[in-house]
Write a structure and sequence with these properties.
The protein is an alpha/beta fold and 546 residues long. It has two domains: 292 residues, FAD/NAD(P)-binding domain (3-Layer(bba) Sandwich); 178 residues, no CATH class. The chain is 31% helix and 17% strand. The strands form five sheets. Strands 1, 2, 3, 4, 5, 6, 17 and 18 form an eight-stranded mixed sheet that branches. Strands 7-16-8-9-12 form a five-stranded parallel sheet, covered by helices on one side. The chain has a three-stranded antiparallel sheet with strand order 13-14-15, with no helix packed on it. The structure holds NADP nicotinamide-adenine-dinucleotide phosphate (NAP).
Length: 546
């Protein structure tokens, strides 16, 4: 590619080196990018804010944190040896096990020496004269690289609502996404939890078991299904591993990047009510996020959706003993699946405990945090600890947290004022040699992240090798291709019920964030074919130059 590229595995280099790539983050995306680009003989450096690898699984150590994609699928497929040798202990792995896996991968493939830990990238400036990015960090690093790769995660910038008085609280404040490494013992404490998304729904049953008193502040009830998590069945593991390659290939061409999800051929209304009920019951017992894919029209037809929503509502009513509490926990303001469906372990049952109370903050809003606890319009609630399970500035947050600009003054934050614009979620016009892994406009958060990450990393690695092979130094998205892609992403989203919900998928959880459907909902398999086609046509829709 260039005079400074090398086939040697890079060791620590002085900062005058021109790297092939700087990578933001050492989660699953960053780790695989390091590995893949090094395999291609490139010099890379990753910067990671944490003091270890693992990304979301490094930060999210809250009680109950667990993946909602089955372990055999939520893992790398790039190494047959790795996938054969690693043993998952549970159907849905818990945070600590996934973090061990990330560390194992970092050690097994020798990735750590490419990573500078406890270092946050603060800016990146592209110089059109040299075609180089200059990247700076909060630790004073200034490095130059040909390519700048965003692998900082889709759900990595935690969001704390700005309640007045937050700093006055005398007890402990936690956010699920920045949980203390040493863990938290809630024994004997009065605890408040704000938020009932996936994180809250996992943490609440665990905290309730420890705390003296738990009060949950709920704004929007979510649909949640029992995960039916269990120890890994050794016979299942053996037979799954025997056909791993086929399972992975199926995942790669599936809609959600998950081989085990159903591929329905009929709609919910094609079945008679009794049969539909039987189908829902079977889906419920499988305990997967594929539940909303049992019929092909659940996420596009309100009437079909209603049949499934009502099935789950009835489950909630039957589980929660107090009918008033059950009613509060029953979602009625969005179609099932249009906010990320949750998987839980004894979530609804938790509200049958004597030490658990639910506050509906739509009827009784939080006014402020006081030194003693939380004041709502109707009451003062005293706590020793408050847990914010209030989510993230999703998909664009981590990218825009870095001051990405060009030497001639273009800023990504200006370009994306009305919402992100990308071509294939991989690049954004006007910012050459900047790649986004699972960026906005790609299937990303609607899929198994590992499938999407591997796809993007492999596509980018091939692309960089193509540029090197052709002696080209620069690549960027063509504006017309980008406009068409953005329109397509919106058009496809509009054929579904997703944009109707106030979800983080649309940016609705962040005050002032433009309301845009962030991921591409056309299906991972279709998207993969599109990306391969673009590459096969000489990177159609991108401008390549020397
Ligand atoms: P989330 O889904 O955005 O949920 C945040 C919760 O906080 C919502 O209930 C929200 O209510 C509430 N909230 C926010 N601001 C509030 C305010 N000012 N007052 C009262 N309530 C407020 O965030 P999350 O639970 O961290 O999950 C984010 C995503 O991470 C998930 O959807 C999933 O993709 C991923 N995740 C996955 C797993 C897993 O694999 N099992 C676990 C955790 C997270 P509203 O709904 O009304 O906004």
């Amino acid at each position: 590619m260039t005079e400074t590229s090398t086939l040697r595995a890079p060791t620590a280099q002085p900062d005058t080196t021109i790297l092939d790539a700087v990578i933001v983050g050492a989660g699953f995306a960053g780790l695989y990018t390091i590995h893949k680009l090094r395999q291609a003989g490139m010099q890379v450096r990753a910067f990671e804010a944490g003091d270890g690898v693992g990304g979301t699984w490094y930060w999210n150590r809250y009680p109950g944190a667990r993946c909602d994609v089955e372990s055999v699928e939520y893992s790398y497929s790039f190494s047959e040896e790795l996938q054969q040798e690693w043993k998952w202990s549970e159907r849905y792995a818990a945070q600590a096990e996934i973090l061990r896996y990330a560390n194992h991968v970092a050690d097994r493939f020798g990735l750590r020496d490419a990573i500078k830990f406890e270092t946050r990238v603060t800016s990146g400036e592209f110089d059109p004269e040299t075609n180089l990015w200059t990247v700076t960090t909060d630790r004073g690093d200034v490095v130059k690289a040909r390519f700048f790769i965003m692998a900082g995660g889709c759900l990595s910038l935690p969001r704390m609502p700005d309640f007045p008085g937050r700093d006055d609280f005398k007890g402990k404040l936690y956010h699920t996404g920045t949980w203390p490494h040493e863990g938290v013992d809630f024994s004997g404490l009065r605890v408040g939890v704000i938020g009932t998304g996936s994180s809250g729904i996992q943490a609440i049953p665990q905290i309730a078991r420890q705390a003296r008193q738990l009060t949950v502040f709920q704004r929007t009830p979510n649909f949640s299904l029992p995960a039916f998590n269990r120890e890994m069945d050794s016979e299942f593991e053996r037979s799954y591993k025997a056909a791993y390659a086929q399972h992975r290939e199926k995942a790669r061409f599936s809609s959600a990047g998950i081989a085990g999800h159903p591929t329905p051929d009929k709609g919910a209304l094609d079945d008679a009510p009794d049969e539909r009920q039987r189908v829902y019951e079977g889906g419920w017992l499988r305990g997967t996020t594929g539940f909303t894919r049992i019929y092909k029209d659940i996420l596009s037809n309100p009437e079909a959706n209603q049949t499934m929503a009502e099935f789950v509502r009835e489950k909630i009513r039957r589980t929660v003993k107090d009918p008033k509490v059950a009613a509060l926990l029953t979602p009625t303001d969005h179609h099932i699946g249009t906010k990320r469906i949750c998987l839980d372990t004894h979530y609804y049952e938790t509200y049958n405990r004597d030490n658990v109370k639910l506050v509906d903050v739509r009827r009784d809003p939080i006014v402020k945090i006081t030194p003693e606890g939380i004041r709502t319009e109707a009451a003062d609630h005293e706590f020793d600890a408050i847990v914010f399970a209030t989510g993230y500035d999703a998909v664009t947050g981590a990218v825009l947290n870095i001051d990405i600009h060009t030497k001639d003054g273009a800023r990504l934050s200006d370009k994306w004022t009305a919402g992100p614009r990308t071509y294939l979620g991989l690049m954004t016009a006007g910012f050459p040699n900047l790649f986004l892994i699972t960026g906005p406009g790609s299937p990303s958060v609607l899929t198994n992240m590992l499938t999407s990450i591997e796809h993007h990393v492999e596509w980018i690695a091939e692309c960089l090798q193509h540029l090197r092979g052709k002696g080209l130094a620069r690549m960027e998205a063509d504006r017309a291709a980008e406009d068409q892609w953005v329109e397509h992403v919106n058009d496809v989203a509009d054929t579904t019920l997703f944009p109707t919900a106030n979800s983080w998928y649309t940016g609705a959880n962040i005050p002032g964030k433009p309301r845009v459907f962030l991921p591409y909902i056309g299906g991972h398999g279709n998207y993969r074919i599109k990306c391969a086609d673009v590459a096969a046509k000489g990177y159609e829709g991108f401008v390549l130059s020397d």
